[in-house]
Design brief:
The protein has helices spanning about 5-25, 30, 40-50, 70-85, 95-105, 110-120, 235-250, 255-270, 285-310, 315-345, 360-370, 380-390, and strands spanning about 130, 145-150, 155-160, 170-180, 190-195, 200-205, 215-225, 230, 275, 275-280. By secondary structure, it is α+β, with helices and mostly antiparallel strands. It has a four-stranded mixed beta sheet. A four-stranded antiparallel beta sheet has the order 2-3-7-6, with no helix packed on it. The longest helix is centred in the C-terminal third of the chain and has 30 residues, at about 315-345.
Length: about 400
């Protein structure tokens, strides 16, 4: 199998690097990899520039505002924009990567015509959040209790969601709610698009372990939504969301950020003297950095396998591979973050802005944020359950 990229894809990598050099500030290493939400207006500006170049939704069909680029080209785009910390690529929580692709599969024509151009434009009206998790449901999403009761030509939504990434910024919520309380847990759920400007919505900010305000708790009190906002079939939302999660988990397996962190650590080891010699000459550091490089190469192979499964329309394989890639890549990121903190020692604890900080202080945020990725998109323990059941045939 040939794992090399085409000339066009290699040229795209260079274009993205040049775009980052021209559009991002010099200190963006300490800002862009983990601080996009704190610079949201700037992220939207970049989104629109990416949209103008045709990059933002390049993997979409042309009729939906894309370039019909092959999956490998989209992989290059995602990895390189992550590597350079280019903000505004996702249009909130998954607008480009799972909401848009999901709408293309099971959305109505009216929904496609309304929402896909908004996402592809990179404007504020194309920003999404995802309404899945609930405080009392734990990791079992089917336990959710938010209700959507049909009254005439509307759904009336009541309940609450938690861990809603960017719901305070989003215009639209990709919401899973219970529409049939008498049906079995998995069969009474529906996927509904909610306008976040609707009356009855309130938001409570939550701060993660890294001190960032990215996620929220969102409350719905008699929120009225037109029935035309139902996505797919009523009471089959569970199956639609499972497809969306496969799109999401494949994206979580992006190795752009850990690859950048590894490159920065290698550079630091080559340039830093300790005890009269460069860190890069320490055999232990050499071996551990080499091991991290091998792990990231495995991560890339897992990502390529997902693309192969999608191209060959082996969707069941793609679903399992997405779960494998999700937990392996996120845990490799944790191991790399730990290695970075050990190499930098006490300097790794310093935040951006400190005159003593190394690598612009990005390691401290990376260390804390890396653990979050083991939860985002479905906790890793659940991903292992999926693999054990779907790939190994083990009992529930």
């Amino acid at each position: 199998m040939d794992f090399s990229f085409s000339e066009q894809e290699e040229a795209l990598k260079k274009e993205i690097a040049e775009f980052a050099k021209q559009e991002l500030p010099p200190d963006w290493l300490s800002l862009g990899l983990f601080f996009e939400e704190q610079h949201f207006d700037f992220a939207l500006t970049i989104s629109q520039k990416l949209a103008a170049k045709g990059w933002l939704t390049m993997h979409w069909p042309k009729e939906y505002g894309g370039m019909a680029s092959p999956p490998t080209t989209n992989l290059v785009f995602n990895e390189e924009t992550s590597y350079w910390g280019i903000p505004g690529v996702g249009m909130g929580a998954g607008g480009t990567s799972w909401v848009g692709p999901s709408l293309q599969v099971f959305g109505t024509e009216e929904q496609k015509k309304k929402y896909l151009p908004l996402i592809a434009s990179g404007s504020a009206d194309g920003v999404w959040c995802t309404g899945y998790s609930e405080p009392d449901a734990g990791s079992d999403l089917a336990n959710l209790s938010t209700t959507a009761v049909k009254v005439g030509d509307e759904y009336v939504i009541n309940g609450g969601k938690i861990w809603n990434s960017l719901s305070h910024r989003a215009r639209w919520n990709w919401l899973l709610a219970r529409t049939d309380p008498n049906a079995p847990r998995h069969r009474g759920l529906s996927l509904i698009i909610v306008d976040m400007k609707s009356p009855g919505i309130s938001i409570r900010p939550l701060y993660d372990v890294a001190g960032f305000h990215v996620v929220n708790q969102t409350f719905f009190d008699d929120v009225h939504v037109p029935v035309t906002n139902l996505v797919g079939e009523e009471n089959r939302g569970w199956y639609h969301v499972m497809m969306s999660l496969n799109f999401e988990r494949g994206g979580v397996a992006n190795i752009g950020v850990p690859r950048r962190i590894l490159d920065e650590l290698v550079k630091y080891a080559k340039e830093t003297n300790y005890g009269g010699k460069h860190l890069a000459k320490d055999p232990l550091i050499q071996h551990r950095l080499a091991n991290a490089a091998v792990e990231l190469e495995v991560c890339r192979m897992l990502g390529l396998k997902i693309i192969w499964a999608e191209v060959t329309e082996q969707m069941a394989t793609a679903a399992v591979d997405a779960s494998i890639a999700k937990f392996f890549v996120s845990e490799a990121g944790v191991r790399l973050a730990n290695l970075g903190m050990q190499i930098l020692g006490p300097y790794g604890q310093l935040t951006p802005g400190s005159k003593w900080a190394k690598l612009q202080g990005c390691l401290q945020a990376n260390y804390l944020a890396s653990y979050i990725m083991c939860v985002a998109g479905g906790v890793n323990e659940v991903q292992r359950n999926i693999v054990s059941q779907m790939a190994l045939g083990l009992p529930r």
